[in-house]
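Lecture 7 notes: from sequence to structure.
We start with the chain below.
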Amino acid sequence: MSGGRVVLLYHRVTDLKHDPHGLAVRPDRFAEHCEVLRRRCDVVPLGAPMASVRQVAITFDDGYADNAGDARRILAAAGLPATFFVTVGRVGKQLEMWWDRLEQIVLECETSADAIEVEIAGRPLWIDIRSPRARDRAYLALFWRLRPLHPETIERTLDEIEHAFGVQPVDRARYRWMTVDELRALAATEGMAIGAHTITHPCLSMRSRDEQWREIDGSRRELQTLLGSDTGHFSYPYGGPDAVDDVTTQLVREAGYTSACIATPGIARADGDPLRIPRNVVGDWDGGAFERWLDERLTAP
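Predicted C-alpha cells for the same chain:
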C-alpha cells in the first residue's frame, strides 16, 4: 500500500425520499462504513502529517443538523475523527437551502401547472413536469442553470418558479441547518473539527474578487466568533473544477487557511497542493459495497 491519504466526502446522514445528487447516507449504512473504517484503516484528522502507508480522513460539507446528530453520534461511538465544513451564514436558519427548496417544488409539490417557461440569467427555459422522469429532468436543468448565480438571485428566481407553479413549499425539519448550540456541541466533541465553507455557499469562481474575499475570510471570522477558536481548514462550495479558480485559491491562502478541499476524486499526497486536496464522494452503500469501493482507493497507485 503506497502512501497518501484517501479523503472521504459526506454531506448528510439521514434517510431522504428524494436525493437527486446522492448526498445522503442512511444512518445504519453510515454505521457500517464507520465499522469498516475502524477495522481496516488508519483514520486520521484531516490535518495530520502524512504517513508512508495509505491513510483515510473523513469530511462533511455544508452543516445540516444531522451532522451534529446521527453523524456525530456514530463517529463518536466508533472513535473516529472527522472535519465538518460549515456554511456559517446558515447556522440557525430555518429556510431550506436553495437546492432543497428546488427539490421540494419540482419533485414533491402538487402544482397547478404542468409546465412553465422561466427566464434565468436572460435565457428562457421550458420546464415540463408531466411525469416523474420529466420532473427529474426539470430539477437537474434548473439546478445547473441556477448554480452559478448569486445566492440572492437564486432565491428570487425560486420565488418566481413557486408562483408560476402555484405552490407554497414549507421548511421541513429534516432539511434544516444545525443551530449555534448544535454547532458548539459538535465542535466540543472529541475528534471533531470545524472548518469553513463560506457564509452563503456561492459558486466562488463566478463571483468578484471582493465577494469571494468576504465569503472566504468572513466565514473564518464568523466561525471564530461563534466557537471562540480559529480554523485553518476550508472547503470550496460545490468544489468542482468550474467552482474554483486561481483567484479563489490565492484568496484562501491570503486568508490564512493551511488546507482547502475540493470535490474532485483522487489521493491526497504529501507533495500535493494543500489548498486543493482531492476528496472522494461516498454513496449510500451497505458495508460490503463500501469496503470494496474503499479497497480500490487504498490500493490505487
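Points to note: The mean pLDDT is 95. The two ends are 8 Å apart (CA to CA).
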